[in-house]
Amino acid sequence: MNRKEFLKRSLIGAGALATTGVASAVITNNIDELRPLNILGFNHLPNTNSKIMANTVLHKAETRGHANHGWLNSHHTFSFANYYNPERMNFGVLRVLNDDTVSAGKGFGTHPHDNMEIISIPLEGDLEHKDSMGNVATIRNGDIQVMSAGTGIQHSEYNKNSSQLVKFLQIWVFPNKRNVTPRYDQITLNLTDRHNKLQQILSPNVDDEGVWIHQNAWFHLGTLDKDFKTEYKLKGGAGNGVYVFVLNGDVSIGDQKLSARDGYGIWDLDKFAIKADSNAEILLMEVPMAV
């Protein structure tokens, strides 16, 4: 897929957002929201600092959108709320990757979602969840939480602790089925199962490892020792790509060197090499490239 096609698909993603009904349920706190986006043509001027190549896109950590609301410090890999970059709308069906830090005792008040698969990966602290389906739960490092918003849900998220930060990744994926019955799930994983291996944490299959979503997607986490090498083989076929997000340390994906909080998308291939250049933690998100 060439750069023009990548941009076209990204902009189609923005258009899909504006027409899926998500925009009709925008969140009113101006923080945890996707506002209606203008549908752009394909002839806009490209970003002169674009990192979109033939089959890769590089997002260095310092180029992410940033919003500090006092109680919430958030970095946005893709356009979100007041951060807008037409070349960073989505990576295929991966629409949101927010790196959030929530102050002690603070959180997101009750707000709505629909027709989105929402995955939360806690990194530090205790995040309390309540929703309109009656679920009340706390997630912490080692847990994976998923919601299929479907026909519509409301939920809140709070830092349960009075003296400790909560850090978590908030990830939104466009579903391949609309208006499904909303559902909630969370699991606790064995952290040792990702030491020098890629632990599957999400898939499209109910009976597979990890949580499942309504999409042809697979997520993996790895905690890698310095100089450890492995490779990732795509599971979803030629239409999928992988977005690599480095949580900690330094890694190389093929010849591309990445550091903490860098993101790197790669597509039009069936496998790629991974090398830990230091002790490192990585998240791999394999998703369909077409929205």
Short note summarizing the structure:
The chain has 291 residues and is mostly beta strands. 6% of the residues lie in helices and 44% in strands.
Describe the structure.
The protein is mainly beta. It has one domain (3-288): Jelly Rolls (Sandwich), CATH 2.60.120.10. Helices cover 6% and strands 44% of the residues. The strands form four sheets. Strands 1-20-17-22-15-13-14 form a seven-stranded mixed beta sheet, with no helix packed on it. The chain starts with a helix and ends with a strand. The model is unreliable at 1-30 and 35-48 (pLDDT under 50).
CATH architecture: Sandwich
Helix content: under 10%
- The CATH superfamily is identified as Jelly Rolls
Give unreliable regions as ranges: 1-30, 35-48
CATH topology: Jelly Rolls
CATH class: Mainly Beta
What is the radius of gyration?
18 Å
C-alpha geometry: globular
Order of helices and strands: HEEEEEEEEEEEEEEEEEEEEEE
Strands in their spatial order, largest beta sheet: 1-20-17-22-15-13-14
Key structural traits:
single chain, Jelly Rolls, 7-stranded mixed sheet, 22 strands, 6% helix, globular, disordered N terminus
How are the SSEs placed, and which strands pair?
Layout: H1 3-19, E1 56-59, E2 65-68, E3 72-76, E4 94-102, E5 107-113, E6 117-124, E7 127-131, E8 136-139, E9 143-148, E10 153-159, E11 166-173, E12 183-188, E13 199-203, E14 211-212, E15 218-224, E16 229-233, E17 240-248, E18 251-253, E19 256-258, E20 263-267, E21 271-276, E22 280-288
Parallel strand pairs: 13-14
Antiparallel strand pairs: 1-20, 2-3, 3-4, 4-11, 5-10, 6-9, 6-11, 7-8, 7-10, 9-12, 13-15, 15-22, 16-21, 17-20, 17-22, 18-19, 18-21
